[in-house]
Amino acid sequence: MRSRFVHRAALASLALAAGCADSSSGPATRLQYVDPAGSGWRLVRDPASTPERLVLAIVGPAGLNTRGVGFNLRAPAGVRFRKFESSGWPIETTGVYELGNLDPCPPGDPYPPPNCVDPFPAEPVLLAGGVKPGNLLTVGIFQKDRRVSPKPSGVPLARIALDVDPASGLRAGAILPLEVLKAKYSPEDIGAFSPTPTQEQADKGHGVLFTLAVGTLSAR
Amino acid sequence: MNFTTLRRLAALAALAAPLAAAAASPAALPRDVQARIEAGRPARVARVERQLRASATAMGLGPADALVADSSFTDEGGRTVIHLVHRHAGARVLGSQLVVHVEPDGTTRTIGRGLAAGIVLPGGPTITPEAAAAAARARLAARGPLASEPTVERIVFPTRFRSETFDPALGRSTVRRGSYASAATGLAPFVWAYRVHLEVRNALDGAGEWFYVVHGDTGEILRTDDLLRRATAAVGTGDGHFAGQVTLDTSLMNDGTYALLDTTRGTQPNPGLVYFADDGSGWVPTGMQVWWEEHDGTGASTWNTFLFQGNAANAWGDGQPLDLITYGNEASPNGQTAGVDVMVGLRTAWDFFGHVFGRSGLDGNGTTASGTAICTGFTQADNAWWSIGSHQGFFGAGTWPRFDDGVDAATDLDVVAHEATHGVTSPSWDRYFVNGAGYEEAGLDEGTSDFFSEMVEIWAGRAGGDPDDAVPATPGDGQIGRTFLRTGPLRWFDRPSKDGRSPDAWFDGMRYMDGHFSAGPLNRALYLLARGASANPADDTHSVYLPAGMTGIGNDSAARIWYRAITEYLVPDLTGSLTFDDARQAALDAATDLFAAGSGEVAAVEDAFAAVNVGPAHGGPPRVKVSFAPWRGVDWISLQYTDGPTRQFLPRGENLRPRVTVENASNTDVTWSLGGPSMWNGAEYFVQAGGTIEADGTWTTPYQMGWHAVTATSVADPSQFAEGRVSLINMDMDSDLEQDATDMAELSYSWYLSNGLNPSHSVYIAPWVDDEDVSAFVDALRTAWPVP
Questions:
Q1: CB neighbours of residue B164 within 10 Å
Q2: What span, in angstroms and rounded, lies between the C-alpha atoms of A72 and B595?
Q3: Which CATH number applies to A23-97+126-219: 1.10.1370.30, 3.40.50.450, 1.20.58.1120, 2.60.40.680?
Q4: pTM for the full predicted model
Q5: Distance (Å, whole) CA B189 – CA B95
Q6: Strand-pair category, B721-729 with B649-651
Q7: What is the structure's pLDDT at B657?
Q8: Could you say which of 3.40.190.170, 3.40.50.1820, 3.10.170.10, 3.40.50.1100 is the CATH number of the domain covering B251-425?
Q9: How near does any CA of chain A get to the CA of B18, in Å?
Q10: Domain with residues B624-729, CATH architecture
């Protein structure tokens, strides 16, 4: 009887030392994420994650070329979406998409760079995001210049970051449902520029809605 | 803004330290002493340059940097005022400068707003000056020819000074927000650039003069400054011979006739006239002169101008109202009447600044000032304006009596003196007040012109026994543009709001107004400083901000204080950063120089500015202050003036909550209202009051796009309020009834498609999508739904 009691106490000490306390025993300090199954559009844990900050990357299906992607992701209270220092936005590029214009001259400018009549720089770019009411992250990254080629999208295309709001009272062990309300990518085929408006062109401008798979998020 | 402190420049503390003990030099020194000090000015300039060189490293300057004296003068008290520009690798660093005062005893004081330290900018611009000029010309998109060849100067440009140009006709601006000039975007704090000067005067484009700052590598337009100083459209009583019977200084020409060319005023050629070839007539570009604009038989300008000349009798004008019903009579005696009025106005202003303040000409350097009368085509007949680059005033012919409801010629003394004062405050391309809506500096510019116009009028009306080196104590008419409209003056000094547009006192957000109206508080402050304020609430000089009133110090003292303030303290840095707080401090510094610290005049300056809600009254507590502070880490209404008058974008039809700051009050509550005081009487017709706003400040923005204003008023002190402006845009590019980041898909698809394919995809109401839409979209997203 006595030895059994000692054995239980030793196990508890071991668990605490490993940081795996009883899931309902204390406030959460970090997030844990298990990637979703499947090979379609999905949010996967990024190696840039740290104990304090979970970084997720959006990955597309292999073989698909796109020109940009955006989505709206809702997280429960206690989970904070964070900005990246590199971009100042809640989204960070992985460098796959070419965000600037292809050259400093507008499309159709008769003069070669850098001497076009109305030159402009790469900036500003379509990389932006925010957190709307209801803890709804909305982010997007899009190539703005149709002269830039579409990019293979079966790789990490952009990152977002989350952490635990220490003031939220979130308890360790809680399962935190993530919900994708909308996701859209800009397809490879955006048609040739035509001075004559067509319905096809108008449709292509809207982009392609898709299902974005998310994994399991929990508090630790 | 502390004018006596050079932030970041600890090394200059040693240079500035003796200033505390430096004796003020208010009194004019004997002329022989002045001359002796003046003779030593070059040596003092060289000494200051040496001292600054020795402190360069500590100031954060590198081996490629230099502070170079650009101009200097010695005032009547013996103080040498030196203006130094910062050059890096030989190129001017825009917005980086120092003003150094050297007192007769050798003590030195620096007046600065901070130098651009730590410039790392190897190499030079990669595009050619010709390409920069081409970029500027493309932006200008002039339909007619340029008035002169573009001039291009290589400069170093601090990117925080980038700005935008707003085109009210299009209802949109060229957005170049500092928010994307960040490390993340790769835009360095300093870039090589070109400063391109362009000028037009033709039938297709009207009159215009601009500086464009062009990125030295990309050709992007980083900044645009309008150099014309236009007065508001108005004319006067219609008599047409405002100056009455006068004696004119003219010139006898080679053919034996006479011209309105006064070679007694002006020792340096007029920069706008030096390009004219010598025609052998005896004409020279040096000497005050008045020209006239030619029209064809229909009244349209031919865009030719001619000197008033060929007058055999040397007798000018007929004293009658300018009557252009019969075009072609511009050089006739009736047309000459306008020339006479302009000449009298220019020379009176010239003589005023010369006699009262010892100033050489308007620019302080004797540069010839010139005027052009009977203008109809340059911009419009009912107007007057000043060109900084050409140091010339242009004065409209008016549209009356051609039209019954027209306005009179813009040639009365107060109009001409107002424009001529711009030649004092903005004497050259290297020193001028930025005068666009969005800058408080614009109100300071126009207010200074209004105030000295009034002083010129009073001085011109002095009695025979009055000295000509002082402004008489007699009251003026307290009006500007009294003859313009033929129905009443354009503006009042005692209570500027009598015009229905100008504010009587400062409020946060006033800078959005046209400078002619945001001038109201400065006009009133200087008027009250001179004339006093009544304690009677029924009196037009009564101020709720100074209910007990004040005693004025007289015209002469007020004029001397403000002249010293604008010439020795309130030095523009070409970025539009001067504020009314700066103006108050400059006036206090000037008053302290002239009348000593603790004097009644210094107290009067405090009270006069307090009466227009700028700073506390003498001995009084700090004021409650309401302001739209940066909101959630970004500018709510672009209060950071160093970024220029960029505008804040927000989405339409969303619930947003602006943040306002209340200082100096324990109760920081405010009441909210839609619209703003700058919209009085439709003054800012393009600004709207829309949506609904709750007691807690939650603003449901309307679906109507464009400029909207909200106002926050202090509960603790309802006389204190602030107006915030934003531009509402449509972010729902894909028309799915949600404004979110996925709408950028549509933006990217439509980028630079200009065939009208996607008119609904612009964030504005325009059938194209370009980088302005991109900037506006991402800015609005950042502001509306920021991430902590």
A1: 24
A2: 66
A3: 2.60.40.680
A4: 0.75
A5: 13
A6: parallel
A7: 84
A8: 3.10.170.10
A9: 45
A10: Sandwich (2.60)
In whole angstroms, give the CA distance from residue A200 to residue A213: 29
CATH fold of B440-623 reads: Neutral Protease; domain 2 (1.10.390)
* Nearest CA among A82, A88, A166 for reference residue A131: A82
> Rounded to whole angstroms, how far apart are CA atoms A46 and B122?
38
In 3D space, the residue among B788, B774, B742, B745 whose CA is nearest the CA of residue B649 turns out to be B774
CB pairs under 8 A between A and B: 168
Q: Extract the tokens encoding B439.
A: 């800058």
DSSP B743: G
pLDDT at B534 over 90: yes
Query: Average model confidence (pLDDT) for chain B?
Result: 83
CA–CA dist B33, B78 (Å, integer): 8
Structure tokens at B536: 């009677």
- Show the tokens assigned to B787: 């991430």
Q: What are residue B773's phi and psi, to 5 degrees? A: -65, -40
**Residue stretches of chain A with pLDDT short of 50:** 1-23
Residues of B in contact with A87 (CB under 8 A): 184
What token pair was written down for A61? Answer: 């299906």
Cβ–Cβ below 8 Å for A130 and B757: no
Share of chain B above pLDDT 90, in %: 43
Which CATH architecture best describes the domain B12-112? Answer: Roll (3.10)
SS3 content of chain A, % helix, strand, coil (to 5): 10, 35, 55
Amino acid (one-letter) located at B103: E
* pLDDT above 90 (res B733): no
**Whole-number Å distance between alpha carbons of B9 and B61:** 10
- Sorting pLDDT into bands at 50, 70 and 90, what band is B600? very high
- Among the listed residues B293, B161, B140, B286, the one whose alpha carbon sits nearest the alpha carbon of residue B222: B161
Contact between chains at A129 and B787 (C-beta distance less than 8 A): yes
Distance CA A65, CA A126 (A): 18
**Closest residue to A205, CB basis, from B219, B750, B781:** B750
CB contact under 8 A, B744 and A202: no
Q: Indicate yes or no: CB of A128 within 8 angstroms of CB of B187.
A: no
Distance CA B82, CA A210 (A): 67
Give the chain A residue whose CA is nearest to the CA of B134: A117
pLDDT reading at B26 higher than 70: no
Which of B127, B185, B748 is the closest to A142 by Cβ? Answer: B748
**Under an 8 A CB cutoff, do B741 and A70 touch?**
yes
Query: Which H helix or E strand runs over B565?
Result: none
pLDDT at position B451:
98
Instruction: Report the DSSP pairing between strands B190-202 and B206-215.
Output: antiparallel
The C-alpha angle with vertex A175 and arms to A169 and A179, in degrees rounded to 5, equals: 105
Domain residue limits, chain A: 23-97+126-219
Sort strands B370-375 and B392-396 into parallel, antiparallel or unpaired: parallel
The span from the CA of B155 to the CA of B674, in Å, is 43
Q: Check CB contact under 8 Å for A131 and B786.
A: yes
Hey, what are B410's tokens? 């813009």
Residues comprising chain B, all counted: 788
The token pair at B188 is 């360095």
Chain B contacts of A143, Cβ < 8 Å?
748
A77-87 residue pLDDT tens:
999 999 999 98
B760: which chain A residues are within 8 Å (Cβ-Cβ)? Answer: none
Q: pLDDT tens-digit profile of A59-72?
A: 999 999 999 999 99
Residue B290 has pLDDT above 70, yes or no: yes
Q: Are B690 and B705 in contact (CB under 8 A)?
A: no
The pair phi, psi for residue B675, each rounded to 5°, is: 85, -170
CB contact under 8 A, A68 and B182: no
